[in-house]
User: Fold this.
Amino acid sequence: MNFPGANTITIEAPSTIFTVFRSGATVTFEGTDGTLISLPATTDQQSVSFSDMPPVCLVIDAGEVMLGDQRLETTPALIDTVNS
Assistant:
């Protein structure tokens, strides 16, 4: 998987159907509808947008993988973020 530079990822589904988790710098969005999306987090900001919310940044900041203001962990969690 190669995502050099800043990218925009548009997911045409609501954020509420997804959980999100990371394995290293790979971030996985898993939907209740069976959708599975894996993206690399980088130190360049990636813009991720869902159909029900403004875009949020996916980035590695100070060693933490962040989706907006939500620190991503290795266990699945609901998307709970604001644009930051």
About this structure: Strands lie at 8-11, 18-23, 26-31, 36-40, 46-50, 53-61, 64-67, 70-71, 77-78. The mean pLDDT is 92.
